[in-house]
Design a protein that fits this description.
This protein is of the alpha+beta class and 259 residues long. Helices cover 22% and strands 24% of the residues. The chain contains six helices and 18 strands. A five-stranded antiparallel beta sheet has the order 6-7-14-10-11, with no helix packed on it. It has a four-stranded mixed beta sheet with strand order 1-2-5-3. Strands 15-16-17 form a three-stranded antiparallel beta sheet. Bound molecules: flavin-adenine dinucleotide. The site of flavin-adenine dinucleotide (FAD) has 32 residues, from β3, α3 and β8.
Length: 259
Amino acid sequence: MSSEKFKIIDFSKFSSIKIGPKIKVKIIDEENYNNEFLIGRAANTLISPNAKNLGILSDKYKFIEYKNGYLKVGGKVKNRVLYNFCKRKNIGGFEFLSHLPGTIGGSIKMNAGVKNEEISNNLIAVKTLNGWIEKKDILFNYRYSNINAPVFEALFEIKRNYDPFLDKYLKNLRKNQPKKPSLGSVFKNPKGDFAGRLIEKTGLKGEKRGDIQISKVHANFFVNLGEGKFEDMIYLINLTKKRVYENFGIKLIEEIKII
Ligand SMILES: Cc1cc2nc3c(=O)[nH]c(=O)nc-3n(C[C@H](O)[C@H](O)[C@H](O)COP(=O)(O)OP(=O)(O)OC[C@H]3O[C@@H](n4cnc5c(N)ncnc54)[C@H](O)[C@@H]3O)c2cc1C
């Protein structure tokens, strides 16, 4: 008999965009990972009705340790929780996490960030299946890392104090973002340009399919107006890529993960 642990997650409630099935998800630790697709908070992942083989970290990876100028953080810790911890302890370098939904594990995989502030900046190493890997052995790029295994823990160095001005500046940048459920930016910005600007220029801002809308506030955010469906997202993603290519010869690449 299998001793595997699972939990049922209703992704129409759990995910940031409120789309997805109610399904069994395996609870992952260092002993039982078997190539499941890991979910943090599904803040950047669009989950299809047929998604299978999903995993979520066990609660033992929900911890923050602060010692001798270093932070050791479990991969399941929410970004906002680490932000609050750092602010309280006067630790700098994590201000950008205040309005970035998701978990530390997912954010490291995505190399999430705002402007020049990226999660890899203060990273020293991550603990994955075969122990610790140093940052120099991981490839990080704009919203990209080549990590293809669970991030169970991460070690960060603390380089400076908490910066309230930077915090305020980064918060203000959020003012042009829609409040309705979304996955953040759907596409990566092409070099030297902004996906949102290109989409807007094609006239697609505000375009709707079912209950999914290319946001009127920010065209790189696709928002769920209520009963938005996976298929409607895919339709608008494909339409947007086609229009941007026809108009500008630029191939937009999804930032979001689709499973
Ligand atoms: C309103 C809004 C605003 C946003 N703004 C920004 C922004 O400014 N900048 C930015 O960078 N992002 C932004 N995002 C996207 C999102 O916040 C980040 O990508 C975040 O890091 C996703 O974290 P998650 O844990 O939910 O990852 P998920 O969406 O669950 O997963 C993302 C990827 O990480 C992998 N993954 C998840 N957990 C782990 C783990 N423990 N180990 C290894 N891999 C894992 C998944 O398999 C998947 O490939 C925004 C999203 C929203 C909804």
